[in-house]
């Protein structure tokens, strides 16, 4: 919608806030990848409108791995075929220029890394790799799908069940990732949330941790979030357009 696209002054204000901060941490959610053709979860056209949320529950996977992989091949594995959009490129460029430090993501699509970002903290794992639950052997997507062509339940050479390297509901987040994310939140003097509804914990706790540690909080999202009331500034925008405008300002400055 035309009125959801911000005026350039908002993009400039956003960039000025980042450039005026000592250390910036950014949290990204599913909304950042929508423009790459990856649906978010909770919107009317989101993933949960097409598949049951239980597919992301560890109990469902362990009970019915064949059912999980039937859905995953069509809905989840293809995420890694997508290409970065302006939001991914914006954050990678801001990081390269030294304006932001860590990028913390709830996404499992690797698009931040494809866009050139480093220091990406993946809270929910990665959809492009898989591991044996018994011996820990790692498998690529192509190797995993070759096994699925043979049997609907992929088994390791040790006979263990192969699990995607994503964090299911009911599992703990990777300890190292959450420790790094919490440290980034504490050390930041500006915490930016982009494309996250901020309703899934413990990720949604990070802006609260940062705010309570003295940081300013900026939220950039199309829809209202669970923490808008806590933010110093909310940009309610279409992320692709907003990021393109910020990139245009950066290009003019260089």
How would you name the CATH homologous superfamily of the largest domain? TPP-binding domain
> Based on CA inertia axes, which overall geometry fits?
elongated
Oligomer: single chain
Secondary-structure element string: HEHHHEHEEEHEHEHEEH
Distance between the termini: 31 Å
Helix and strand composition category: alpha/beta
Roughly how much helix do the residues carry, as a percent range?
25-40%
**Which residues sit in consecutive blocks of at least 5 with pLDDT less than 50?**
1-6
What's the arrangement of strands in the largest beta sheet? 3-2-1-7-8-9
Let me know the number of strands: 9
Number of domains: 2
Give the second-level CATH assignment, the architecture of the largest domain.
3-Layer(aba) Sandwich
User: Sheet with the most strands?
Assistant: 6 strands, parallel
Our count of helices gives 9
Describe this structure in words.
With 254 residues, the chain is an alpha/beta fold. The chain has 2 domains: 1-38 and 84-124 and 173-254, 3-Layer(aba) Sandwich (Rossmann fold), CATH 3.40.50; 43-81 and 127-166, SIR2/SIRT2 'Small Domain' (2-Layer Sandwich), CATH 3.30.1600.10. It is built from 9 helices and 9 strands. It has helices at residues 8-19, 58-63, 65-75, 86-96, 111-114, 141-150, 175-187, 205-212, 239-253, and strands spanning 24-28, 103-105, 120-122, 125-132, 138-140, 162-166, 190-194, 216-221, 233-236. The strands form 2 sheets. Strands 3-2-1-7-8-9 form a 6-stranded parallel β-sheet, with helices on both faces. Strands 5-4-6 form a 3-stranded antiparallel β-sheet. Strand 7, helix 8 (205-212) and strand 8 (216-221) form a beta-alpha-beta unit. It is elongated.
């Amino acid at each position: 919608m035309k009125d959801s696209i911000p005026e350039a002054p908002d993009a400039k204000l956003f960039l000025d806030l980042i450039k005026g901060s000592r250390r910036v941490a950014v949290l990204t959610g599913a909304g950042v990848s929508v423009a790459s053709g990856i649906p978010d979860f909770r919107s009317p056209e989101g993933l949960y409108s097409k598949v049951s949320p239980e597919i992301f529950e560890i109990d469902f996977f362990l009970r019915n791995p064949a059912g999980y992989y039937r859905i995953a091949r069509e809905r989840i594995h293809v995420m890694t075929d997508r290409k970065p959009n302006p939001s991914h490129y914006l954050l990678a460029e801001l990081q390269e220029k030294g304006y932001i430090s860590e990028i913390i993501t709830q996404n499992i699509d690797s698009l931040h890394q494809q866009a050139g970002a480093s220091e990406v903290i993946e809270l929910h794992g990665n959809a492009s790799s898989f591991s044996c639950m018994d011996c820990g052997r790692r498998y690529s997507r192509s190797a995993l799908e070759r096994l699925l062509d043979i049997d609907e339940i992929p088994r390791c050479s040790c006979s263990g069940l192969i699990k995607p390297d994503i964090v299911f509901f009911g599992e703990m987040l990777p300890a190292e990732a959450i420790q790094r994310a919490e440290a980034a939140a504490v050390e930041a003097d500006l915490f930016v949330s982009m494309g996250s509804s901020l309703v899934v914990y413990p990720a949604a706790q990070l802006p609260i941790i940062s705010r309570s540690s003295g940081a300013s909080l900026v939220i950039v999202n199309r829809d209202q979030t669970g923490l808008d009331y806590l933010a110093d500034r909310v940009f309610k925008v279409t992320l692709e357009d907003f990021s393109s405008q910020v990139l245009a300002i950066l290009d003019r400055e260089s």
